Amino acid sequence: MFGEDRGAPVGQDASASPSSVSSSYDWKKPVFIPALVAGIVGGGTGLVSKHRKTLGLSNVSASYAANFAIVTGCYCGAREFVAATRKTGPDDLLNSAIAGFGTGAILGRLQGGQVGAAKYSAIFAVAGTAADFAFWKLKSVLGNYNKSVNEDEKNSLKISSSNWLRLPEWFPIQVLDEEALAAKQAREEKFLTQQARIRNLRKEES
User: Which residues of 154-190 are buried (b: 16+ CB within 10 A; e: fewer)?
Assistant: First the structure.
């Protein structure tokens, strides 16, 4: 498959080949980073565990960190494998449900046999799907917030750039915009019309 990608013409669009898309997709980031974060959270959980006094603080923290990282890494790896197999986007929650079901079934089987496999598959499917749904929702909200903040900053820059030449009202020389200039011209024309009427009336009286 990789030989076919390397032998493709130079001008061919890489997005047209599914194999090139899957090979260029960086799957390490959505797997290793969550596993690392989960390991840190697990280590912190071990610090407040009730078993730290009997088993030792370092042993409990290391055990929690390893378990959290292994479970999260297995789930995220399964999710990325399902997404690559189904050729769907990373935000497809069906991938999360399938990956959670499979990961829970395997880990539950190792821990508690068939009963554990059935229980953990349901738990992992629900928990993984809910976590991914919350993540994508939060990412969308933060993206919209950043977009609104950037738009507000651009508008404020436009307003400040248009008002930087505005002089105080008491200043005898004013820089008028189009509306103010049109209003001033209308007042001048009205004044000239009134002056012309007054001159005509004086001529008629004389």
Answer: eeeeeeeeeeeeeeeeeeeeeeeeeeeeeeeeeeeee
pLDDT digits (tens, 9 = 90+) for 11-55: 444 444 444 444 445 667 788 888 888 899 888 888 888 877 788
pLDDT 10s digits, 82-93: 988 888 877 788
pLDDT of residue 21: 42
- The answer for residues whose C-beta is within 8 angstroms of residue 136's C-beta and 6 or more apart is 91
Q: What is the CA radius of gyration of the chain?
A: 35
Q: Where are the alpha helices (DSSP H) in the chain?
A: 2-6, 18-24, 29-47, 52-55, 57-86, 93-163, 178-205
